Amino acid sequence: MKKQTILLSLIVLSTVSFAGGYKINDEAKDFELKNVDGRPVSMKDFKDAKGFIVIFTCNHCPFSVAYEDRIIALDKKYAAIGYPVIAINPNDSERQPLDSYENMIVRSREKGFTFPYLYDSTQEIASAYGAARTPHVFVLKNEKNTRLVKYIGAIDNNSDDASQASSHFVEEAVDALLAGKEVKQTETKAIGCTIKWKQ
Amino acid sequence: MKSTLLILLIYLPISMFSQEIKSLEFKELQKESLNSGDSLMVYNFWATWCKPCIEELPYFEKANTKFSDQHVKVILVNLDFNSKVNDVTIPFIKQKNIMSKVYHLTDTDPNEWINKIDPSWSGAIPATVMYQNGEKVYFKEGQVTEQELFQEIEIILEQFAKNHESKE
């Protein structure tokens, strides 16, 4: 009887682990990842946060680069009112040397990133969240001792030209949460670079 | 007369080998994909900045010639930014001597059409989709190997042949 229970639990656990990332209203796990200043960063460090704008992004992808200024603008607008940006580089630097930790430090300095730019060296967080491309945003709302996923997807609907974007998905999501409302458009998609998973 | 002939002799070969990119909107692509009759339409989504895309382009080029007499059409759908087409995409096509048909999607809001290709597609490229008789017959997000690509096409062609045999 005991053996069967263990076997059953193992089967259930294995299917759960291959779920393929978070869905809306899933609990998002915290992390402890190295920032470009050498120090570890976790969401629990942010005592005043109401939530987070977690963005999987990197140094080399032209889409990430196209969005850098917009990511900086998001942090500028929302960090002070409870929703700081946390950027995470999910890529394996062996597959893409331009996305190495050293290059992250350079990029952060060059662009004057005001937010943590963390290195997901084991790719465990990217995998748990279900990051599928760069950039890929997960807006989280703090709830009791955890945080729930409230939006997954693109920053806006025009990668090439910020001035032509007619829908600002992340801003709309965070504004809704700040106003105590539900997010209207919870999932969007965009073209982006593949995550460079370890082989 | 002689000089006209000479000019023609020089310009004709150039125009034959120069690859043009057809710029179009997604709705036109969708219309074509669903209205190509028996032809197997193989659309590969790629960009000049996408390393895994470039790596697999030769397989699509090979498929283009290998299956050309079996109603298979390979179309490379480029997703470079509109502002980069003239300076980057076109020179790239010329330099690599790409022979397959190349489209450039002009839509700026991919959220509108990614799910129409396949709801499981995250938007990362490369991705490949195939249509035949107004139906999607294959979709893959990620790289394909030459073997995977050829095998998939062959399986679809075989299936098609079987279905048409049994109708007689």
Q: Topology, pairings included?
A:
The complex is a heterodimer of chains A (199) and B (168).
Chain A: H1 2-17, E1 33-35, E2 40-41, E3 51-56, H2 62-78, E4 85-89, H3 101-111, E5 117-119, H4 124-129, E6 133-134, E7 136-143, E8 146-153, H5 169-178, E9 192-194
Parallel strand pairs in A: 3-4, 4-5
Antiparallel strand pairs in A: 1-2, 1-5, 3-7, 6-9, 7-8
Chain B: H1 2-17, E1 21-24, H2 26-34, E2 40-46, H3 51-66, E3 72-78, H4 85-96, E4 101-105, H5 114-117, E5 124-125, E6 127-132, E7 135-141, H6 146-165
Parallel strand pairs in B: 1-4, 2-3, 3-4
Antiparallel strand pairs in B: 2-6, 6-7
- What's the number of extended β-strand segments of chain B? 7
CATH superfamily of chain A: Glutaredoxin
Broad CATH class of chain B: Alpha Beta
Arrangement of strands in the largest sheet of chain B: 1-4-3-2-6-7
Strand content of chain B: 15-25%
The count of domains of chain A is: 1
In helices, the fraction of residues of chain B equals 40-55%
Name the CATH architecture of chain A.
3-Layer(aba) Sandwich
Average pLDDT figure of chain A: 92
Shape of chain B: globular
Total count of domains of chain B:
1
Give the N-terminus to C-terminus distance of chain A in angstroms. 39 Å
Number of helices of chain A: 5
